[in-house]
């Protein structure tokens, strides 16, 4: 099982006034649960683990948009640094796919994949899927099923977050940054109806904000 940093269910988090939080979001958040610096440190270690496991192979890094873009960019920056400063480097190319499974704060049973026609280009390739958060796991299982039809040589999944939830299918990525409580999290490109992507830290969204930004 992939190792990760666990954030306990009773984690109290950190007061917002200890961090730089955009003023337009201050009334929408309960706590900072994962500060930006901790995200970056954990991402650096994930990059090292990935290079150790997949180094020596050409990797196609597949970013799951939109929520995964910030983690994707930072992870690839750390991999690039390792490539420049290590005896074991890996050729790296990138591709993008968009997967949608949310309406407001609820994960739906319907998974919509945008850009799936381009997955055929991954035939025979070593693929690293980069995701922001795995909740039920059904979205990723759907994507992996689609990928398998394209016959990639190898597929690994890295997710910044995995949520502990009774709705989980039991799926676990190959690499995990943090295991988090069953709360609605925003920030570091995690959104609620497209808001909060511009927040550096990962925070717990309060109930008033769910109504405020509801579509």
Automatic annotation (TrEMBL):
Q: Which GO terms describe its cellular component?
A: cytosol
**What EC number(s) has UniProt assigned to this enzyme?**
2.4.2.8
Identify the cofactor(s): Mg(2+)
What Gene Ontology terms describe what this protein does at the molecular function level? Answer: guanine phosphoribosyltransferase activity; hypoxanthine phosphoribosyltransferase activity; magnesium ion binding; nucleotide binding
Q: Where in the cell is it found?
A: Cytoplasm
Question: Where along the sequence do coiled-coil regions lie?
Answer: none
Q: Which residues form the Phosphoribosyltransferase domain?
A: 38-192
What keywords are assigned to this protein? Cytoplasm, Glycosyltransferase, Magnesium, Metal-binding, Nucleotide-binding, Purine salvage, Transferase
Q: Which InterPro entries does this one have?
A: HGPRT, Hxn_phspho_trans, PRTase-like, PRTase_dom
Per the record, the GO terms for biological process are: GMP salvage; guanine salvage; hypoxanthine metabolic process; IMP salvage; purine ribonucleoside salvage
Q: In which pathway does it act?
A: Purine metabolism; IMP biosynthesis via salvage pathway; IMP from hypoxanthine: step 1/1
Quote the catalytic activity from the record. GMP + diphosphate = guanine + 5-phospho-alpha-D-ribose 1-diphosphate; IMP + diphosphate = hypoxanthine + 5-phospho-alpha-D-ribose 1-diphosphate
Q: Do you know which Pfam families this protein is assigned to? A: Pribosyltran
State the similarity comment: Belongs to the purine/pyrimidine phosphoribosyltransferase family.
Instruction: State the function annotated in the UniProt record.
Output: Converts guanine to guanosine monophosphate, and hypoxanthine to inosine monophosphate. Transfers the 5-phosphoribosyl group from 5-phosphoribosylpyrophosphate onto the purine. Plays a central role in the generation of purine nucleotides through the purine salvage pathway.
Q: How does it assemble?
A: Homotetramer.
**Name assigned to this protein:** Hypoxanthine phosphoribosyltransferase
Q: State the species of origin.
A: Poecilia mexicana
């Amino acid at each position: 099982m992939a190792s990760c940093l666990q954030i306990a269910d009773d984690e109290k988090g950190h007061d917002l006034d200890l961090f730089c939080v955009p003023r337009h979001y201050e009334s929408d958040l309960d706590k900072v649960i994962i500060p930006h610096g901790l995200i970056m440190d954990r991402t650096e270690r994930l990059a090292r683990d990935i290079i150790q496991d997949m180094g020596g192979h050409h990797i196609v890094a597949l970013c799951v948009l939109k929520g995964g873009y910030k983690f994707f960019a930072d992870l690839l920056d750390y991999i690039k640094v390792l490539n420049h400063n290590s005896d074991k480097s890996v050729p790296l190319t990138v591709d993008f796919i968009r997967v949608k499974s949310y309406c407001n704060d609820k994960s739906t049973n319907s998974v919509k994949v945008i850009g799936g026609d381009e997955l055929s280009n991954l035939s025979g390739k070593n693929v690293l899927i980069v995701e922001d958060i795995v909740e039920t796991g059904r979205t990723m299982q759907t994507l992996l099923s689609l990928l398998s039809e394209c016959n990639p040589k190898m597929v690994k999944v890295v997710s910044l977050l995995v949520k502990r939830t009774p709705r989980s299918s039991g799926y676990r990525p190959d690499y995990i940054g943090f295991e988090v409580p069953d709360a609605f999290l925003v920030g570091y490109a995690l959104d609620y109806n497209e808001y909060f992507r511009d927040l550096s830290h990962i925070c717990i969204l309060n109930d008033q904000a769910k109504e405020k930004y509801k579509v």
